[in-house]
Write a structure and sequence with these properties.
The chain is mainly alpha-helical. It is about 65% helix and about 10% strand. Helix 1 (about 5-10) crosses helix 2 and helix 2 packs across helix 5 (about 60-85).
């Protein structure tokens, strides 16, 4: 059986996908502890029970957001690595335990961190 995240990715126009999109932004702005499911539901324009129906509790939704971001990042890194002609300019350091990511690449770095010099 497909996970809610897989269902949201499969149908970008679905309610699951709409909730996920808003949750990515709200969690990104306020963090896990500063975000409530009520805030996300209000931004989507749905009742909180609808959010819980689609995603379960706040921790489940947050996990889906992290997995979704990680998958998007993995895809971008793969595309960048494949497209990179001069590998001297591509340095990727990923420390899973600390969720710390350092990217040094003219294309990828400016895409992910536009304010990064």
């Amino acid at each position: 059986m497909a996970t809610p995240l897989e269902k949201a990715r499969k149908d970008p126009g679905s309610m699951k996908a709409k909730i996920l999109k808003v949750a990515r932004r709200v969690f990104g702005e306020y963090g896990f502890h500063g975000t409530t499911t009520r805030m996300i539901a209000q931004e989507v324009g749905i009742d909180i029970s609808t959010l819980h129906y689609h995603w379960g509790d706040k921790a489940d939704l947050y996990e889906a957001v992290i997995l979704d971001i990680s998958e998007n990042l993995r895809q971008q890194l793969t595309q960048c690595a494949v497209a990179a002609v001069d590998h001297r300019f591509l340095r990727i350091v990923f420390l899973c335990g600390g969720s710390f990511l350092l990217l040094r690449s003219s294309d990828l770095g400016s895409t992910l961190y536009p304010d990064y010099g």
